[in-house]
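Entry 14: structure prediction run for Vacuolar protein sorting-associated protein 16 homolog. Input pasted below.
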Amino acid sequence: MDCYTANWNPLGDSAFYRKYELYSMDWDLKEELRDCLVAAAPYGGPIALLRNPWRKEKPASARPVLEIYSASGVPLASLLWKSGPVVSLGWSAEEELLCVQEDGVVLVYGLHGDFRRHFSMGNEVLQNRVLDARIFHTEFGSGVAILTGAHRFTLSANVGDLKLRRMPEVPGLQSAPSCWTTVCQDRVAHILLAVGPDLYLLDHAACSAVTPPGLAPGVSSFLQMAVSFTYRHLALFTDTGYIWMGTASLKEKLCEFNCNIRAPPKQMVWCSRPRSKERAVVVAWERRLMVVGDAPESIQFVLDEDSYLVPELDGVRIFSRSTHEFLHEVPVASEEIFKIASMAPGALLLEAQKEYEKESQKADEYLREIQELGQLPQAVQQCIEAAGHEHWPDMQKSLLRAASFGKCFLDRFPPDSFVRMCQDLRVLNAVRDYHIGIPLTYSQYKQLTIQVLLDRLVLRRLYPLAIQICEYLRLPEVQGVSRILAHWACYKVQQKDVSDEDVARAINQKLGDTPGVSYSDIAARAYGCGRTELAIKLLEYEPRSGEQVPLLLKMKRSKLALSKAIESGDTDLVFTVLLHLKNELNRGDFFMTLRNQPMALSLYRQFCKHQELETLKDLYNQDDNHQELGSFHIRASYAAEERIEGRVAALQTAADAFYKAKNEFAAKATEDQMRLLRLQRRLEDELGGRFLDLSLHDTVTTLILSGQNKRAEQLARDFRIPDKRLWWLKLTALADLEDWEELEKFSKSKKSPIGYLPFVEICMKQHNKYEAKKYASRVGPEQKVKALLLVGDVAQAADVAIEHRNEAEMSLVLSHCTGATDGATADKIQRARAQAQKK
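Run finished. Output tokens:
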């Protein structure tokens, strides 16, 4: 244990800091870090170096080289810089490299040097050029802050949703500030800058002068400032050699330290651990590294070569040409277990386990001591927690073996924390490997989440490892393996040295019917890479037509999209393709395409019936469909035309179409309608009233109601209305008029072709029994009983029924007999029925 704590350095009485090597860098840098623009992403992220930047001592012909490495120094990308001078580099939260140029254009590159996009920070920045820039991270995303040559600031809090904010002017600012940084307060990004002995805070509305509380006197300038990883704390380095530390709101002072060095540091970053009360700042000069906090002493390290500091959630990464190290506060669990002469439960349990392996009885003594104090659960938990904060697998195993040993003597210790820690450490050790190069700590891993870590492995194209982690952690397929396979397939389609057939086959063999994988998304990526044929082949594996069709339309494969839409049976999808085709093709080609697809043609006709009647007519003309064309003109004659001449002309066109279709019935009917329309117009002119658009029957009825009986009869003859129908029309009309005298004359004009029972029924319908009785006597024998019952003459109906000896008629009469008034009639019928049965 004494050897283990050899690299522990106390800062005051309550905290230790340790620095250990993550990797031995093998990146073979040809230049010093100070000659490069450097950017390193947090959470064990990649490192970007822009070699040969625009320096006066460099020859003008030397092209800058942008190189990207993993945190272990493994090369990821290298490209010659062919754009303008770069002022600053930085990584976004999505691990995209942002390169801020002097003209205000920000170029965005992927992890492997692939160009993604670019955006401008505005015309003002373009005109005044960029003096300095900062890339920062907030809860909304990654932002960019620019200091222009006019000493004004422009800021965007989220480069994914670019909204530029021009910050207020600082009064009296004639030169660049001595130092500045971005701070986030109340979910808003601000600019904090130093001008001589004064500090100014810029927000979107105003410029405010601020003063750090408790600052030592005699300060004439601030040389460096640093905001903590969580934007909660601020450190200021003054020209007097003092380092002021306080809250980022500048309302509270934490401490102040005199480092006795007045030279401005190269870098200053915070080094703090989540949920720790200790606060420390790491300051770097050319060959010295100093850790200062709320203690009179500091921790100092000698730097053998140029180094670069990367602030992290729980510490500071320090890399140089040869090494990559991590400096952090020793976690509480580790401190309690490993500090000299510790009697913490975890320390005793670790000793007990070691003695047990030696088969020493001291193991029992240590174990009894812990159990007597009732601290065995706490000891197990301490060992589990300390294992998570250890970087080296051997020490992790030692602590986990101690925890497992202690668990054996506990009845009800929940195993979840132990199992979860074993899983987490196995994942962490896998990604910390030199060839992977993501040196995450346990705290960073928990803050980052497994899903983000998987995304970062996918960005590095480490698909096998990502899939192994998903299977090991048993993540749901949609969130794990399926998602990674989809990313792999999207990368696979970018390999242009492999044929389309081979790529499509390889993707299908690997993915199959894996749930959560969308072949249409992969096809869209293939199309974006200019591989249209590959995209079409991939779409053949997509089971959802609704996903196939939009991409086929985008690829201008409209006819294939139409076939797929028809196969799906989704009419909405078919309509979508049809409307797209209509806008894409000329009219002739569009109609020819429809002729080859009967279902699409039928659906388009339905659409045209409601939306585009002229197009429907053109369709019928092109197909020589005279039957439908005739029907179209008939509908058009009623829908559009108001003048009788126009309607008759449309009907004439319809009749001609019906003749061409050899539908003589429809043609004759149309011609009859034309004659009727002309006659109705003439009747309106001569008689007044409304006749147009009435049916033939309604026209005859209207004439009768108007007293124009002769005209009605003439109309019936002209249109060959059958006598029976004419008699019914006239009977109904005269009864409605209650012209009983005319009705009687009409009934006697000649023998009724419909009989006289209808006269009885119509009169009774008009509640005129007197008139009904006149016609009841004229009703034929077969309907006599029914007529007599209609006028209420039950007794006479009974006599007729008995006379006819008709069982059905006698039953009908009985059903109309009431008990009191028709008792004799009922008895009479019953006797007649009895006699008939005897015979």
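Notes: The chain has a mean pLDDT of 85. Will compare against the previous run tomorrow.
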